[in-house]
Amino acid sequence: xxxxxxxxxxxxxxxxxxxxxxxxxxxxxxxxxxxxxxxxxxxxxxxxxxxxxxxxxxxxxxxxxxxxxxxxxxxxxxxxxxxxxxxxxxxxxxxxxxxxxxxxxxxxxxxxxxxxxxxxxxxxxxxxxxxxxxxxxxxxxxxxxxxxxxxxxxxxxxx
Length: 159
Prior knowledge:
By secondary structure, the protein is an all-alpha fold.
């Protein structure tokens, strides 16, 4: 009997002891327990992944809603700004037209005042010239007759 035979016998005895102590059942139970644990972890990971996908879809929906709302707000703000620009333009044009009209009225009034002043100066000058001319050429007798004729003409105009 050689050593190989005794090694084989030792191996068979060792395997018998392992089977008697129920090591294969313990190994199977440990492997089953480990497979159950891995299965549970996979199920949890699947649930977490589904929840993450739902959250992602919800956040994408909220983001799209926020973008639509922001676009609406931007559009409304642009419309309001355009309306305000138009109102400001109209008010500015009205203000300019009122100021132009006032300036034109002031110019017309200044022209009328200047014309009246020139007329008054011309009348004063003509009266002084006539006074000087009449004073130098007319004596008391002629001035009395001129006064009477002017007075009669004035009375006729009053009637």
